[in-house]
Every structure is written in structure tokens, then in C-alpha cells.
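Q: Convert this sequence to C-alpha cells.
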Amino acid sequence: MKGLDTNLLVRWLVRDAPVQASRVERLLESGDSFFIPVTVLIELEWVLRSRYQVPKERFVRLLGNLLEVSVLKLQHEAAIERALQNYATLNVDFSDCVHLGICSESGCLPFLTFDKGATRLTGA
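A:
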């Protein structure tokens, strides 16, 4: 299994570089499976929000769609699903949602933080 970097996912989702987007499309249709690390997902949200002004609601849909792509294997998938639910419903940074999701999955709660926003999360 090969890993995917953030820039491939951005090209595929945003399609601002058609040649690269097509290359990613061909990869995903190749029959291989691809691994996406948690760090790539955190970076993906940051890039889409800061560089492309993708609204939160659209990011939630995009990541939800990625979770449904059978050839994509997301690291800590259950934690990412929980993070996505929290992110969709609360005014909290996506990265904090992911941190809490992984801590919860690992049985390491509460998640201690000085971040007032993160304290909105159950378990922080």
C-alpha cells in the first residue's frame, strides 16, 4: 500500500491543476489501495481553509466523502469519524477534534489542554 500526501488530495479535491488532478484520479482507479496518515488530514483541512477558503461545511462533506472511498485507508479512521462529527457540530479547530479522537480511541482521556476552544469537546 502506498501513502498519499496532502498535495495529491488537494489537487484531486480542488481540481485547480487539471493534469495533476487527472493523475490522482488514475491512481485511485488503478485498483491499488492508498494510506492517508492523520497528519495529512490535519494539513488538508488547514490548506483548504487557509489557501482555498473552503468553508467548514464543505470540508466536512469532502472528508466524509473521502471516508467512503474504498481504496483510501485513513489512519485512525474511527477517531477521524468522531473528530469529523465534533468538528461539524462545534466551534472547535479540526486539529483539536482529531487530537481528542485519537486520545479517546487510545483510552487516554481526559485530553488536557489550555485551549479554551478545545474544552468544548466532551472528554477535554
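The chain has a mean pLDDT of 96.
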